[in-house]
Amino acid sequence: xxxxxxxxxxxxxxxxxxxxxxxxxxxxxxxxxxxxxxxxxxxxxxxxxxxxxxxxxxxxxxxxxxxxxxxxxxxxxxxxxxxxxxxxxxxxxxxxxxxxxxxxxxxxxxxxxxxxxxxxxxxxxxxxxxxxxxxxxxxxxxxxxxxxxxxxxxxxxxxxxxxxxxxxxxxxxxxxxxxxxxxxxxxxxxxxxxxxxxxxxxxxxxxxxxxxxxxxxxxxxxxxxxxxxxxxxxxxxxxxxxxxxxxxxxxxxxxxxxxxxxxxxxxxxx
Length: 270
Ligand SMILES: [Ca+2]
Ligand SMILES: [Ca+2]
Hints:
Elements: H1 2-23, E1 29-37, E2 40-48, E3 55-63, E4 66-72, E5 81-83, E6 93-94, E7 103-109, E8 117-125, E9 130-139, E10 144-146, E11 155-159, E12 177-183, E13 186-189, H2 195-214, H3 220-232, H4 236-246, H5 252-265
Antiparallel strand pairs: 1-2, 2-3, 3-4, 5-7, 6-7, 7-8, 8-9, 10-11, 11-12, 12-13
Helix pairs in contact: 2-3, 3-4
The protein binds calcium ion (2 copies).
One calcium ion is lined by residues 95-97, 99, 101, 103.
């Protein structure tokens, strides 16, 4: 499972480039991504003067028949582009926090080999009658919207991208589970509320580690992510025992020291 999931996550950006290239072969052609929920309708439009270049990226949000927001979005470079790969090529318009008011999620990719993707989340403020923007960075990965606990509100099912390149090359990096909820302008890391999902995720990482070892990788990246998942479960001691039994290479003391330091810096070891 983890292998498949990792592959899917790692191929998202490739897909993004491929699909946009395929759709937008005509220079300068304007394209749109749109979505709607209740009385809120949102649309991103952009032009593509050259391959991989994007211009005039605009977001428009119409609420109850009134255009509340219509503006050109700042781009970090001309390669900074809207993507729909996390959301089936739709612009998600949905109530993320249960206050009956839909939010708008606009996803972007800054361009590059993997990095970086980010979301701009727009929430309507009924006092100022304006949309307020929250930006969330996903790094090399992304997310899927899923109602993981069936309470009617979607979670952002993701992974901790700080583990990319932390102990090994990108392709051999593993990632702990990370789940986010949006509430009133803030993204909240709620991963620890899902121990069953974390336990499944840890098992998948261990399986991926085993497969990586069989293919000649030292498995450092996957063991690191596994141990982080174990800390999320409050099973750090057991995690260390298994990691220390598994990793026997000559640099093990240095690896364990680096790993402990990293898990401290990233907040897994409190
Ligand atoms: Ca809402
Ligand atoms: Ca939920």
